[in-house]
Design a protein that fits this description.
The protein has helices at about 5-10, 20-25, 80-85, 110-115, 120-145, 150-160, 175-185, 185-200, 215-220; strands at about 30-35, 40, 50-55, 55-60, 70-75, 80, 95, 100-105, 170, 205, 210. With about 220 residues, it is of the alpha+beta class. The chain has two domains: about 5-120, Jelly Rolls, CATH 2.60.120; about 145-220, Winged helix-like DNA-binding domain superfamily/Winged helix DNA-binding domain (Arc Repressor Mutant, subunit A), CATH 1.10.10. The longest helix has 27 residues, at about 120-145. The radius of gyration is 18 Å and the shape is globular.
Length: about 220
Amino acid sequence: MDLHEMLAKSIWGRNLSPVELARVLRDARERTVEAGSAIVRSGELAEHWCGLISGFGKMSVSSADGRETSLTSIATGGWFGEGTLIKRGRWQYDAVALRDCRVALVPRDSFEWLRATSLPFNHHLQVLMSARMGQFIARMCDDRLLDSTARVAHCLAGFFNPELYPEPGSFIDIRQAELGQMAGVSRQRANKALQLLEQQALIQVERRGVQVLDLNGLRHY
């Protein structure tokens, strides 16, 4: 999928007027980010709304002593950065490519023009920010109330939120260490949790990721 096709077929792009879509297609650009490199860096001024044409990444924050915690993941078809753009602020987190990524960049001026002219676009932003807030609240509750297996189960189920991950498939291309970071558990605990979930026929662990067999079971684990 090329940049223009991704924009036109996105949840929000489909609801733009021809004039609005034409401006976005004119102004947006694509950037390739290699695995392990930054899509955005904490402290930099936010100049674009970012979406993944392809690839997989994470948002994370680091302390002065080098400790890191992952906030959420970024998958194909997902967009991020709207809150920072609205505040005209600087990135408060790093967004890092875990796979080679093709990133769509919508300039701040185009983003603000859409906010000023398109009611459907504003509705989409409200849904997106509400979904992300709900995800963070759920993650906080999981961290405080659930054991490591349930946290991993809920983390896997979270990849099927259609507002945040519009193109989910039953296979999640994620490594155990990455899943552990997302769920807030060690790699060893993530490995044990995956074994238990597989024994209960909720998932199938494969070499490059996890095949989800029972989504409802993961959500209510």
